[in-house]
Design goal:
Layout lengths: L1 H4 L4 H11 L4 E4 L3 H7 L11 E4 L6 E5 L3 H6 L8 E5 L5 H9 L4 E4 L5 H10 L4 E4 L1 H8 L4 H20 L10 H14 L4 E9 L20 E9 L8 E7 L4 H20 L6 H14 L11 E3 L6 E5 L12 E4 L2 E2 L6 E2 L2 E6 L2 E4 L8 E3 L2
Parallel strand pairs: 1-5, 3-4, 5-6, 9-17
Antiparallel strand pairs: 1-2, 2-3, 7-8, 8-9, 10-11, 12-15, 13-14, 15-16
Bound molecules: zinc ion (3 copies).
The site of one zinc ion has 5 residues, from strand 8.
């Protein structure tokens, strides 16, 4: 599993991409890029851990000596990458600079701490620093079959969580209480970590990134539940369903049906060669036509993989055509103010069109008050 997901030859493709971008080295500190290249899920600490990828020479991984056993035991240990431990009184930035010679341009991980990027600048004052993301996104955006399978497992796990949610929603329970139960379910259903739990009830449902509060659910409430976590594989889940506690407001039922059809149309638009902005438009047009356009004020979706939000973004202006292996959310929402709704599935582009990785019921789920 791990070998398929984090194949040893990946580092060769990263070296080629680094050379093609004209960079003298990539510097990858702990985070999704380092994990993508090596499988090493290193923790980000003040001591420097950094994979150095010079295109013309062998890559090496600089690690604090006390973390050497962890690095050796990680998938990175099996890749044949040289591990370079440093001791507490060493300067690991000078160590990297010394091995690289005089680089003119280096790519630093998008998620590198500023503190580290500044130390690298001091150690290599002539090296211009660019975002490594411009190199890494081209690779990470095009998922392998093993990565798609990992996302499929994540999708099935979060679907099982949503299947439990109706039993957790009851008038009188607070958003916080429901969220605690959902967090437990996210782990119980196979995730390694809980990344976010949004339980947005009543007027809170009109705020797309509301998290949770001590508001108690009431009869007649609409509840937007948007949840996700990271699987042991490293790959993320993200799925939204909208629920009603007893009979929802009459105007709500009307726009929920508009939203459901818009989300359907957007998923149906997904195919190789189609642009992300066209997938966005497929969701937006029916919502505009029904007169709810001003209440759909966020992009339709985001890529997903080792991060919950990554390329490609499903947004107007993104004209880079979809390719098989690209995975992203399709999550239109309508938020008029007194309440709101969102429906979100992860969709992977395949040769034959879009494949949804979330399949739990999308119709409005009404639970007993
Ligand atoms: Zn979001
Ligand atoms: Zn979400
Ligand atoms: Zn999302």
């Amino acid at each position: 599993m791990t070998k398929d997901l984090y194949p040893a030859e990946r580092i060769t493709r990263v070296r080629e991409a680094t050379a093609a971008a004209g960079l003298d080295a990539l510097l990858l500190t702990p985070g999704p890029d380092l994990r993508y290249v090596t499988g090493y899920d290193a923790i980000q600490l003040e001591r420097l851990t950094c994979l150095v990828v010079p295109p013309g020479e062998e890559p090496f991984l600089v690690v604090p000596r006390l973390e050497l056993p962890a690095a050796q035991a990680s998938p990175a240990g099996a890749l044949g990458v040289e591990l370079v431990p440093w001791d507490e009184t060493d300067d690991p930035y000078a160590l990297v600079a010394g091995r690289l010679g005089r680089p003119a341009q280096v790519g630093v991980a998008d998620r590198m701490w500023a503190m580290m990027s500044l130390r690298f600048r001091a150690a290599m004052p002539n090296a211009e620093q660019l975002a490594a993301g411009t190199v890494m996104r081209e690779l990470r955006m095009r998922k392998s079959a093993a990565e798609v399978e990992a996302l499929r497992e994540a999708g099935a796990a979060i679907d099982r969580v949503h299947a439990i949610v109706p039993g957790l929603l009851r008038a009188g329970r607070t958003e916080n209480e429901v969220a605690r139960d959902i967090s437990e379910a996210i782990v119980a259903e196979g995730h390694h970590t809980v990344d976010f739990v949004i339980v947005a009830s009543g007027p809170n449902a009109a705020s797309p990134h509301h998290e949770v509060s001590d508001r108690a659910l009431r009869a007649g409430d609409v509840v937007v539940v948007d949840v996700g976590g990271t699987m042991p594989s490293g790959y993320c889940s993200d799925c939204t369903r909208t629920y009603a506690i007893g009979e929802p407001p009459a105007d709500f039922a009307v726009y929920y049906e508009v939203l459901r059809q818009a989300q359907e149309a957007s998923c149906a638009r997904v195919a190789p060669g189609v642009t992300p902005e066209s997938v966005d438009a497929a969701a937006r047009e029916p919502i505009n036509e029904a007169g709810y356009g001003e209440w759909f004020f966020h992009r339709t979706g985001h890529g997903i993989g080792l991060e919950t939000h990554e390329h490609p973004y499903i947004v107007s202006g993104n004209t880079e055509p979809l390719e098989p292996g690209m995975a992203f959310s399709v999550e239109p929402g309508i938020y008029p103010g007194a309440h709101g709704a969102r429906i979100e599935d992860i969709v992977v582009c395949t040769a034959g069109g879009g494949e949804r990785l979330n399949n739990v019921d999308r119709s409005l789920i009404v639970v007993d008050a």
